[in-house]
Amino acid sequence: MRPIVVAGVSLLTIFLAGPSAASGFLAARFGGEHGHPTTANPTAIYYNPAGLSLTGGTRIYLDGTFALRHASYDRPASAISHLGSSPEGQTPEEAIGANAGRGELTNLVSSPFAAVVSDLGVKNLGVGAAFYVPFGGTAVWGRNKDFEGNELGKKYPGAEDGVQRWFTEDGEITSLYFTLAGSYTFEGPRLSFGAGLNLINNVLHTVRARNVDGSDDLVTADGALKEGRSLIEASGWDFGASAGVIWQPIDDLWLGFSYQSRPGFGDSNLDGTLDVSLGGQESQQEIRLVQGLPDVYRLGARWRPDPEWELRLFGEYVRWSTLQKQCFLSREPKDARCDLNDDGSAKPGSASNIVQNIPRQWKDAFGVRAGASYWISAPFEVYLGAGYDSNAIPSKTLDPSLYDMNKATASIGSRFEIGHSLAFAATFTQVFYAQREISVEESQPFEAPSKQPNAAGTYKQSISVLNVNGEYTF
To answer: Which of 254, 362, 421, 425 has the fewest beta carbons under 10 Å from its own?
Structure first.
């Protein structure tokens, strides 16, 4: 059932996207336990640019985050649009397993961070450039073996792609950042100020099952195949900015605050194509995606009570309430708007321009973390960390394409310096997600063009994260 175009989709960008380990699909884990708003290492380019001037010299920093994600979605039969026959269509009794049961994925993904920072020979100055992926998530779901390579699968082609296929079969949403940032420290008040400018490439790729009426019907009332497929590929460029301050009120105590703006300073627009295969017919349409990514506030403290110990406490507030919808519009006219009523239906004048809308209606989320380091010897540091992140996705819009739950994290790691020029660090983090149960009554209560199949069911997830990095100073 997949369109021919799906076979040619490049998977390169999958390896540039980490899974969500904070709220929503905020995936910033670079730096391990040393990635925070009072850090002095090069990840300050993202977490707080004021930290770039806390350490002198020229530094080259390479960082990789590798994550193993396992997720499952159990969909009840009561979520099926039309079980048995109906005038609109049906899921026959023999094919209940095509639309109800368990979908699973086990994915290994990675995310890079690379930076160069220098004082340019000027005391108390720090400037740097970096590439990284703070927002991102990918998912490639497993197959439904009950419909793979057998007569039932031939009768209902497409069912082998899993019960979650009405929301995603494989998908990616990422924001790739290219950042220039600078900082200066004023010695008298011991204040550091920093700012950065981001060039951002937003990317979306998703393959999903689709019916014109927003149902999950396998066949029409007269028995003809109804299930189709859609492939959306879109991308766009935005600017963003960051700013921060770090204050050292007493020796060995640092207080920091930073702000990261929304990509595009508002809603982002991504241009792309929608390829659809329905009823044996294939079509392609140029579309524009409108979505709103969040801005992020960070606050933290770092304290060295003695040379052998460091204690850290920091948190973030992420304005996910900016992501109310992912609306796909016709590319023309250029001034087309996605004006919707509360029930997801289009307001007068917008209906002809809206190809499809995916309701999100996310809410703001926060996270808090604490950590401690101990230096066994001058070059050898070990550390622990723990944290909590809240959920950004309400029950009525949660679906398998984008997961979130309340979650806790536990981290352990170490850092080792070789001389005064080379250092290596590794951090292992386990993310523990709370299970979510979504009822049929509360899931996806929307009208066309926002109508989707019911996403009720049980959602589970776990992620194991390994961060490794190296830093060379000269």
So the answer is: 421
**What are the pLDDT digits (tens) for 306-318?**
999 999 999 999 9
> Hey, is 402 helix, strand or coil?
strand
Which of 60, 128, 103, 79 has its CA nearest to residue 424? 60
Which residue in this structure is represented by tokens 């998908």? 171
Strands 296-306, 309-318: pairing is antiparallel
For residue 446, what is the DSSP state?
-
Tell me how far apart the alpha carbons of residues 281 and 79 are, in angstroms, rounded to a whole number: 28
Phi, psi for residue 168 in degrees, rounded to 5? -170, 140
**At a CB cut-off of 8 Å and minimum separation 6, what does 373 contact?**
33, 309, 310, 312, 381, 382, 383
Q: Where are the beta strands (DSSP E) in 119-227?
A: 125-140, 170-186, 191-210
Q: Across-strand partners of 269?
A: 290
pLDDT (tens digit, 9 = 90+) per residue, 89-107? 799 999 999 999 999 999 9
Neighbours of 365 (CB within 10 A): 23
Cβ neighbors of 82 (< 8 A, separation 6 or more) are 88, 89, 90, 91, 215, 217
pLDDT in tens, 289-306: 999 999 999 999 999 999
Using CA atoms, how far apart are residues 144 and 142, in angstroms rounded to an integer? Answer: 7
Among 113, 129, 110, which Cα is nearest to 31's? 113
Nearest to 471 by CA among 90, 117, 51: 117
As a whole number of Å, the CA-based R_g of the chain is 24
Q: Where are the beta strands (DSSP E) in 226-295?
A: 228-247, 253-260, 268-278, 281-291
| Buried residues in 171-203 as b, exposed as e (16+ CB within 10 A) | bbbbbbbebebbbbbeeeeeebbbbbebebbbb
